[in-house]
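Methods: example folding runs. The two proteins below were folded one after another, and each record is reproduced exactly as written to the output file, sequence line first and structure-token line second.
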Amino acid sequence: MRAVLLGPIKAARHVQENLFRSFKIRSDDFLIGIDGGLQRWKEWGVEPHFGVGDWDSLLQKKLLKNIPHVSLPRTKKRSDLFYSVIAALTAGVDELLCVGVTGGRMDHHLGALYDLSLFSTGKFGFLKSICAKGLEGDYHFLSEKIPSWKGVFPKHTLVSVFGMNQGASGVTLSGFRYTMRGGRMTLSSLGLSNRTLRKHCKVSLSKGQLVIIIPRFGVGTEVDHDGA
């Protein structure tokens, strides 16, 4: 089962709708609204199953009356996203799609990347895939528990791959302009602005953590979202 977590996207309506069209809701998806994301689900004509947040970005508080939810304190050590993923894991999901949790404030953006990378390690529960979709791009997270990722893109699509936390070893990049076989990626710009050479590409590792980033805008960055 997959959880789809929706954040409080702050953008023009047509931009939000473009993001909504970039993925398909499955019949068995567990839909979570993160704070103001609860309202975004309703605006898109979708009934969420659950909500998590301190509700500082939820304008229509009346929505909480009819949707099961967990209310968080304003002062806390972790983000609303972190607790939303915990709720998803408690519900028994094994796939995670987070929409509208990146971009915006740089500290929030970086915190989201670190949290999702942490969840890829299986420390809090098993997940076989973690993907995030933002207005600025798509993200995929790898670890020893999620050791490989395959993409299908037009030739010359821009893809960056970075080491997370302590970096990654045994890294293999195939189908790219700059390839790697069993290499190491540290916390650096190594892996920035690679491009696909074939329709199919693959990233794998043997140890550590990686984030794969596909920018959404710019020449050669159009992506095939059907597999999300």
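Second run, written to the same file directly after the first:
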Amino acid sequence: MTYKFASMVNKYGKELFIENSQKSASDNADMLDEFKACSNKQGAVLLGVCGGRNSEGEDYPGGFMNSVIIVGIPYHLPTPRVEAKIKYYDTQFNRQGLNFAYLYPAMQRANQASGRPIRRKTDKGLIIFMDERFNRRMKWISEWVNSEVRVIPDRKGIISTLSGRFWNR
């Protein structure tokens, strides 16, 4: 976290919660209870990682979370294990190892994270995929999300403009 980001969060009266893989499951649950309690007040910001326990293992229905921003495609680190999977799948599936062992799992993590605020038919949420590489992989995004996607060119202040339009309709 940078000081500038913390200042921006505080400027809008939002409490900042940061996922920490070193914390126990019960510590994380306590943090999420505090985060959800803020939804009844001024709201809060939760920072986490795709593939982490808060982006895949937790639901935020109703007013607990109203937007999610996925910054970058959540690729695994290119470890020897991932490289071995790519080689194996290349031999088994006509040179599709990169897709099966690297690209599809990354998009699955993005899909999981994008669905956190939408758990019921009455829920609404703003989902932002903040990386132009998502444009080339939109067919791998869940159909219910993909059908609503609008590609917006990058410019200063775009997120506040989009979120204002979304929540005021």
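Comment on the second run: The beta strands are 15-18, 44-47, 67-71, 126-130.
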